[in-house]
Design a protein that fits this description.
alpha+beta, 5-stranded antiparallel sheet, 5 helices, 12 strands
Length: 234
């Protein structure tokens, strides 16, 4: 399978070997690259601007032989999703050495990021809605003239049962919602597919809408229900 054919949560913060071909030449300042070093063992993370990137732990000459440089504490380089999207790749069961090298590096990349936002990146329900380049951007339904149209929402976190975010692009239609306006979305199913619906959207909610939103959050919190599921309370 190609990188772009995998679900995001299949490989995010995990390990995959990518048939990187001549991309490995970009790493020659960090490690000696031979003509047959066309494979790269990578993990993945979201950069500060949300772009999906792949950190390179090691390289090698085949799917099975891709550990050159793994013993080094530093990463050999980083590939963007654009560079590897159409490359063949295989998920890898990690060794102890891979985990030891990768974990502290990813922790530094994620430092300062909201915990709820980090949690949403592990949620497979959202995989079918994610932008392939910016996984924190998800399609969200907003009612327009009695129909539901989907727009890009950049996830900011979780509030009770809602996935919260901001609208990513100024809508062409006059929705009363503008670029960066807040959205409170709920998940629902169509068949076996999860979709999102913006129950509340915009910076100019009415007093009744604010009360209704806050009441839902309060009641769901009392019941131990959040966007992530149920919490058993003592």
């Amino acid at each position: 399978m190609k990188v772009g054919e995998y679900r995001f949560t299949d490989y995010y913060h995990q390990f995959m070997t990518i048939e990187a071909d001549d991309l490995t030449e970009e790493l020659k300042d960090q490690i000696e690259i031979h003509d047959d070093d066309c494979f790269a063992l990578c993990s993945s993370y979201c950069a500060r601007d949300g772009l999906l990137e792949f950190n390179v732990l090691s390289v090698g000459s085949s799917w099975e032989n891709c550990t050159k440089g793994l013993e080094r504490p530093e990463m050999l380089g980083v590939f963007s999703i654009d560079e590897v999207f159409d490359k063949n790749a295989r998920i890898v069961e990690p060794s102890y050495e891979m985990i030891q090298k990768n974990t502290p590096w990813l922790e530094r990349r994620d430092a300062g990021t909201d915990d709820d936002l980090l949690m949403t990146r592990l949620d497979p329900r959202l995989d079918g809605l994610r932008d392939p380049y910016y996984p924190d951007i998800v399609l969200t339904g907003i009612v327009v003239d009695q129909t539901v149209n989907e727009y890009d929402m950049r996830i900011t976190g979780i509030k009770g049962p809602f996935l919260t975010g901001t609208i990513e692009v100024e809508p062409d239609e006059d929705l009363g919602i503008h670029l960066d306006d807040p959205i409170w979305a709920l998940p629902y199913l169509i068949g076996n597919e999860c979709r999102l619906f913006a129950l509340f959207a915009g910076s100019n909610l009415s007093e009744d809408q604010v009360k209704a939103r806050d009441r839902i959050i309060h009641e769901m919190d009392k019941a131990g229900i959040s966007f992530n599921g149920f919490t058993i309370r003592s």
